Amino acid sequence: MSGVQTIKVEATEDGSRVDRWFKRRFPHVSAIMVQKLCRKGQIRVDGGRVKGDSRVHEGQEIRIPPLPEPGERPPVNRMSDEDIAYVKSLVIYQDDELIAFNKPAGLAVQGGSKTTRHLDGMLDAFGEGLDRPRLVHRLDKDTSGILIVGKGPKATARLAKAFQSHKTRKTYWAIAIGVPKPKMGEIKGFMRKAAASGVDSERETMVAAGHGDEGAQHALTRYVVIGEAGQKASWVALRPVTGRTHQLRVHLAAMGTAILGDKKYTCHRPAPEDLGRRLCLHARRLEIPRPGGKPLVLTADLPPALKKIYDTLGFSVKEISETDIEEDLA
Fold this sequence. Notes:
Structural Genomics Hypothetical 15.5 Kd Protein In mrcA-pckA Intergenic Region, Chain A, Pseudouridine synthase, Ribosomal large subunit pseudouridine synthase C
């Protein structure tokens, strides 16, 4: 039996539920035991009682009561063989610090209301406890493309800090309805959340706000039009300088050229040729700084369903210079 411990919540654990935080730290302790310890007040956060579904935040201190030693444990992976094979098939790169996935549209990054199958839950396929990879950023459920997770607390903390301090460079590709004018520039302003629903970001809606409004956050996006299909649609590269919820979707809709397939942030233009059945937003490129070396540059191919839409509109990835695009967005 271990003694009483006090553990501080790391930046990468901010917003985690108490029971899930506990499971990552002490995988041998059952969920039933965690709930029981919470009810008895033996697990406390900053000295206060909590429930299993309470959320913890960076810097808070969690009191851990005496716990049984690991002993015999059930197998680490309770995932199905199919899910293990599936999540591993999404990996496009990995090293000692991180794993990069090409996340498909429709797969949530985290659990939420009525969301039980998500990438975070599948990370059990890669380890347990402190060795279990951890999320360092997010993508909307219906956005495809690059998403990385950190290997171990130290790597995860460094990567999370790089995202939070805007030292990473992200490039998204979108198909917009119509053509943004001008064809290259910046979109900026303030936005705020109109509603919140925990970690289920798809239930949140962002609205325009004024400077000084409660909850208002400044948002800045750089963009350049790569290709056009007449005036019906355009292929746009976007760089979110800030990282607000649904930022790219809100900004393109505000220009009157909403992202094709976006059912939440729309514009007055009709979708071309009935192609708007999926959100045409893809996290194409991610540049991550590396201490003492060159940045790591990752790219994610378009998923087949999205590439088919590109082909239908006459957009060819082979005919563009991504180097020129990156220079335009710099």
